[in-house]
Input
Amino acid sequence: MTRVRVTAPQPAARIAPNRPYHSREAAEDSDVGQVFVRSLIRSQLRLALVVASGFLLVLAAYGSMVALVPQLAQMRILGIPVNWVILGAALYPVIGLSAWLYNRSAARNEARYRDLVEEK
Amino acid sequence: MNPAVGLAAFLGVALATAAIGFYGLRISRTTGDFYVASRTVRPWWNASAIGGEYLSAASFLGVAGLILLTGTDALWFPVGYTAGYLMLLLFVAAPLRRSGAYTIPDFTEARLESKAVRRVTSLVVVAVGWLYIVPQLQGAGLTIRISTGLPSWVGSIAVVAVVCVTVVAGGMRSITFVQAFQYWLKLTALAVPAVFLLLNQAGGGSPVLAEASSNPTGLPAAGLYQTVSLLVALLFGTLGLPHVLVRFYTNPDGQSARRTTLIVLGLLSVFYLFPTASGLLGRVFAPGLARSGRPDALVLLLPGKLLGGVPGDLLSALVVAGAFAAFLSTTSGLVVSLAGVISQDHLGGSVRGFRVAALLAAAVPLAFAFTTDSMALAGSVGLVFAFTASTICPVLVLGIWWRGLSDAGAIAGMLTGAVLCGGALVSSTIIGSAAPGWIAQPAAWTVPAAFAVMVLVSRATKHRVPGTVTRLMTRLHVPERPVATERQLR
Output
């Protein structure tokens, strides 16, 4: 077996965009290309903010439901108080659903961008 | 608890960890493997590894302990720990992967073209890492004392020793396998006893869980401010944790970084059902532990208390094994990421430098763990989240989404967050339990303050925004080609 001396790649070399983009870079540096890039970034940010605020609203709704309706602590599902079920289990599907929706829409934004760039 | 059982469980986990670590070493050949597993780890492996790394002493022991103490108020902790990953997915996962940077300081330096930013970020990252390792070691001390009767320092030293051996030997690639294994071990170790005890109690026809809402300590419920501030810390602290971020670099591209995060969310959601169940069981059947001042030991003591005999011993052994998996995986994840930062900045980035840095990264918190006394585990980890949310979170989020960020703004914001949040945490430690809520749980005002300072100073120093920003933003957000070069290389 041959021994190879290994060192970490230097940060500058790693970050320099010399990877897959050679042919695309020219297009992306052009004015039109940048319009597409900016609109992609804007739509991704808008998507992230929408999903985040939607989730936070649900979180706030669950929290205030438990705080404002103390009777929930007396009710039972399978012997477990309802306020425990709401905070301890029912929030996780909401988190997963938000993440799934976000992934789908983010991938769609990217596909739309790809179509635009490749059409040119 | 039977001391031999505890000891056997610990040795078993240590041996399994070392064995998997050495297996990883055999296939870890290049520096790329060593640092980031050559960015070719599959989403399922990677997600299990992220889960394994993230679920620390705080999740394994602390959440159940806190639920025992404060009931439904504590249920926000697991929710926040999980939802933090949602925020990570929304705001940083894919762009950060595309940046191609390996550590957070790499990213900030590249984004802002500034060595000074790099140095400040490195300092913050190392501080966060060290603060986060300390509770892991204290948890190890607690576990070894409860399960074997040996003094606490034995547990802390044992964890540091195993971590150093695996990290120094195998680097990132072997750590990925180790972490993935440890996620499933932790899940089993909490799920089996919780399900078993629940069935056992339900079958016995006891007035199941009727007293769950009773309050064994008489502690007052947390106010609205406390809960909101805690959630701010947990939601926005996760996306700045150095050991979590480093994991995303092992994904092949931005899309798979997102897919991995989705799987992680699933794994975390399943996991957190069980500390919650244990906490609930503890509230009904072992409220005495809350008053004895050792609620963090609840998960460890519950099987013995409710079952006793051989089944109790076996379940206890499983729990102790899971607890050590938690300390080992989080500590090694942190040590790997800290070693990455320290070695790149000060030791030339060689494999040897990485190893020296790893030893350094583990030794310092060990000293801290000896000199400080442990507080509630979930609580002290929550404070670390508040600190990351006030320092690293703003620089990452603004760096990824806002072209106007300047190096001066980033430094000013991080320092503001560090001073305000650090100051609040130190003074609340000094004042003790009499500290007012806004000092004890500072995230709700320190995070906005850090963001505000970062934006305002950047606006005032517009001329310092680097000229490369357009190109970098393109790099961060534009999807990779369907077949990326790196895959062909593989």
